[in-house]
Amino acid sequence: MSDTERDSHRDLDIVLFGATGFTGGLTADYLAEHAPSGLRWAIAGRNADKLEAVRARLGADVEVLVADSTDPAALSDIARRTRVVITTIGPYLEHGAPLVAACAEAGTDYVDLTGEPEFVDQTFLAHHQTAVRTGARLVHACGFDSIPHDLGAYFTVQQLPSDAPITLRGVVRSAGTFSGGTFHSALNQFARAKDMRKTYAARRRAEGKPADGRSSRSVGGKPHRDPVLGYWLLPLPTIDPIIVARSGAALPAYGPKFRYSHWAGTKTLRYALGGAVGVGVLTVAAQVPPVRDFLKGKVPQGSGPDEAKRDKSWFTVDFVGEGGGRTVRTKVSGGDPGYTETAKMLSEAALCLAFDDNPETSGQVTPVVAMGDALLARLQAAGIRFETVS
Fold first, then answer.
1. Among the four residues 56, 92, 128, 211, which has the most C-beta atoms within 10 Å?
2. Is the overall model pTM greater than 0.85, yes or no?
3. pLDDT, tens digit, for every residue of 338-353?
4. Distance between CA atoms of 96 and 287, rounded to whole angstroms?
5. What is the pLDDT of residues 44-54, one digit of tens each?
């Protein structure tokens, strides 16, 4: 089914679920300010009064749709009306599955902010083939997890020969506050390590290896000092390296053998060791339900820092790529990672799916596979910097 045939009956371009939350509200603000003229969009959720308050604050021509995230019939009705669905409602393992199912069945493009590998793998197992059949593009991790890393890796490997093995490392540094939703999702992941591994293994069996004999995977490592960047590196156990490796498996530009490692970078060994201890403490604490619930209560969902604090926040991701006898260093950088830039990335991804000339694909795909050069251009125009350093 062509995009024209699939979209001929749809009266909306984008529907945003979660606009009454903090990050969802910023996403609504961004869409209202930057959307192209004539955008047909709506905000959706279960509380009509709160949605009406958001619409009044936006002062935009936006429709309000009332639907509970646990009501498959209502979600299906909305999915059939729109070309793209955005959702900021997490943790996605708890709240996300019915909406993905509705989009896959309706042939509706879907974007979210999840950093939860188990949810992404469950989605692949349950809905990838349906989305392939209907033409839907299911694109997870369209915020700080994992747009800068996925698009940054893509930007870097394009500057290396594609006929030779490529090794690439990404090093993240930031000053900013991450959202309550991200914190809750992280605690849930730490508590479900065995379930994550089981679901990941099932997905690997289902999708198999690249048909052309290429290989692509993420690799770990021990803390060490980077000889090129000069930072102390700490392995960063996020969804980002998984997303990058899946883009590498899908696209020949990443070479016949692609290896990616993902790190947090600090200027001193003391900070690196402190980060490692902090992750270890959270991992242990997440195994005890009362402690996990206590920690969640300390960082509530739906709240975040004020604009002044966000304006002082920043992030950088340095990439060092090697292949075919060449070494390339690049950098992706921007402002507040957890909120402002995340809302920007998510919005631009949805607009890209709705309006740009993208690669022909369907099913569960990464941001790079779904949008590639078009999204890269959008992000650069929106102020996120992609630079070749050397």
1. 92
2. yes
3. 899 999 999 999 999 9
4. 23
5. 999 999 999 99
